[in-house]
């Protein structure tokens, strides 16, 4: 029993580490996941690594291909549309119903400030990470562990969608001011206007990523 428990903990750690690498932009769409070096880096057995990969494959973050092994998922137009459909359902509703005095609003502000600082140094991958943190904080306004768990997987998929864009500055720069404006409206008690701004933001972001994916598929 203890051995099984330790193996389960190791698989969970490996799963979290790989998912975090995707969310952090360290693993990009189409990257091959070579078992031997990955197992060594994560300090787990190859069997444990395979269990972690099975979990991430179930989440749609990894695919197994014949004669190629495991690779990081390349988002499709359909998967991007579905991702944003879920995001609108969760994020817009949460922001509209939330209390501006909720502690998660401070996390939203910290994410905006960190994104502006990263943009000043042209660290656009960091800007993308701050953007994900901002939207995670929006969902945290709901005080729902279930929604938090759903969002964890969604954000990993979103980072993969970011990865189809060749110019991260073109993706992230236009939305810096949007996040700040959404937060200012929310903090001022104008939750409906903030939610409407967020819905518009998500629509433009979705259109940008779909356009990038279509260009990628033609190249």
UniProtKB/TrEMBL annotation:
Keywords: DNA-binding, Transcription, Transcription regulation
Residue span(s) of domain HTH gntR-type: 8-75
GO MF annotations in UniProt: DNA binding; DNA-binding transcription factor activity
Alphabetical list of Pfam families matching this protein: FCD, GntR
SMART domains, sorted: FCD, HTH_GNTR
Superkingdom as given in the UniProt entry: Bacteria
Keyword Cytoplasm included in the entry's annotation: no
Protein name: Transcriptional regulator, GntR family
């Amino acid at each position: 029993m203890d051995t099984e428990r330790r193996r389960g903990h190791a698989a969970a750690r490996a799963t979290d580490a790989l998912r975090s690498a995707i969310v952090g932009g360290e693993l990009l769409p189409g990257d091959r996941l070579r078992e031997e070096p990955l197992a060594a880096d994560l300090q787990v057995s190859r069997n444990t690594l395979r269990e972690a990969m099975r979990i991430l494959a179930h989440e749609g973050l990894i695919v197994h291909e014949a004669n190629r092994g495991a690779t990081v998922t390349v988002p499709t137009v359909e998967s991007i549309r579905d991702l944003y459909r879920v995001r609108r359902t969760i994020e817009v509703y949460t922001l509209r119903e939330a209390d501006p005095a909720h502690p998660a609003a401070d996390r939203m502000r910290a994410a905006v400030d960190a994104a502006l600082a990263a943009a000043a140094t042209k660290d656009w991958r960091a800007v993308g990470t701050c953007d994900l943190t901002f939207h995670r904080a929006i969902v945290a306004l709901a005080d729902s562990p279930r929604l938090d768990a759903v969002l964890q997987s969604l954000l990993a998929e979103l980072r993969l969608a970011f990865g189809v864009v060749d110019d991260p500055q073109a993706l992230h720069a236009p939305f810096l001011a949007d996040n700040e404006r959404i937060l200012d409206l929310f903090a001022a008690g104008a939750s409906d206007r903030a939610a409407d701004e967020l819905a518009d933001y998500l629509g433009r972001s979705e259109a940008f990523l779909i356009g990038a994916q279509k260009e990628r598929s033609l190249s």
